[in-house]
Amino acid sequence: MSWRVIHVSNVDQMSLQLDNLRVMQGDIDVKIPLRDIFAIVVEDLTCKLTSRLMVELSKNNILVLLCNQQFLPECVIHPVSGHFGQHRQMMKQLKWSEDRKQKLWQFIIKQKVHNQMLVMKRQLVEVHRVEKMAELTTSIEPGDNNNVEGQAARVYFNSFFGDGYTRSNQNFIENAALNYGYAIFHSAIARTVVAKGLIPGIGIHHKGDRNPHNLASDIIEPFRPIVDYFVIRYPPDGYLTKEYRINLINLLHSKVMVDRKSQTVIRAIELCLNSLFEFFETGKLERLQLPNLEKLKLYEP
User: Fold this and answer.
1) What are phi and psi of 12, to 5 degrees?
2) What is the residue-wise DSSP string for 159-203?
3) How many of the other CB atoms lie within 10 Å of CB of 186?
4) CB within 8 A of 77, min separation 6: which ones?
């Protein structure tokens, strides 16, 4: 299974040499086997990428993120041809019942709020706030039509950033860090969605007309607290340095519990998506495998 996440900055050119990614900068010439690479994050706007390399990266289902001047992912490269049984997978997805979608969304939000609560406990947030989160998890209905997710988010983020905090405040450096981390996770999930032969634009709950990855926007929810925990524990100092951005990218290597086993986030994403098929075929919620942050271990190089 591929596992390397390559961060590219201050590089002259990337090309293909046999079955390796070749990275060149001045006299430095590095080669990395394609079979080891899960994702490449390109932050250097002057870096040259050969067409032959891009074709092979696509064939190998390697996630390629091209970042803008603010270092946020701007372009995601996906293969034209996907899973070997893509038509069969797509037809199954189109038949997913609305009733099971509603139950799945309820389960996803319950796990998200539970993971948020675990982050609060780790950071020794006041007991009454943690108890409020526990209370909210019991009131989440299929489809979460009462928007308990939003109520929990208000309690959660205000516990760390104060009552005046909003996620839309672009001047708040923690929001920039959260957005960067979320974008990396979202892209990693979108890559796996495509690799599984699913239709990325058809979500479980999200239905954004301009969102080509609604399904990834659904699956990311219980994973978000991993990024939250890192940013809360290690807040950025004024701006997002290269080192800080690399640490956010490396959160994909953090360990979480899935089905009572420790897994990297990359592996947890795959297990989560595999379990979706089982749930929609059987209707059994116990088949779902979502990340649990009870024993979260951040990646340490």
Assistant:
1) -75, -50
2) HHH-TT--TT-TT-HHHHHHHHHHHHHHHHHHHHHHHTT--TT--
3) 19
4) 54, 57, 58, 63, 64, 66
pLDDT of residue 78 exceeding 80: no
Q: Are 221 and 109 in contact (CB under 8 A)?
A: yes
What is the residue type of 143?
G
User: Which residues have a Cβ under 8 Å from the Cβ of 26 and sit 6 or more positions away?
Assistant: 12
| Residue given tokens 């974008």 in the structure block | 183
Contact call for residues 89 and 202 (beta carbons, < 8 A): no
Q: Which domains are seen in the chain, by residue range?
A: 4-77 (3.100.10.20), 86-297 (1.20.120.920)
**What is the reported pLDDT for 71?**
87
pLDDT of residue 1: 67
State the chain's maximal CA–CA distance in angstroms.
61
140 DSSP 8-state letter:
P
C-beta separation of 296 from 288 below 8 A: no
Q: How far is C-alpha 205 from the chain's CA centre? A: 17
Coil, strand or helix: which one is 11? Answer: coil
**Residues counted in the chain:** 301
Write the CB contacts of 231 (distance below 8 Å, at least 6 apart in sequence).
174, 177, 178, 181
C-beta separation of 75 from 66 below 8 A: yes
Pair 12, 25: CB distance under 8 Å: yes
Q: Strand pairing partners for 22?
A: 15, 31
Overall average pLDDT of the 182-196 stretch: 93
Which letter does DSSP use for residue 263 in this model?
E
> What is residue 82's predicted lDDT score, i.e. its pLDDT?
59
User: What are the structure tokens assigned to 69, written together?
Assistant: 């001047």
Question: Percent helix, strand, coil in the chain (nearest 5)?
Answer: 50, 20, 35
Q: Is the pTM of this model over 0.85?
A: yes
- 111 has pLDDT over 70: yes
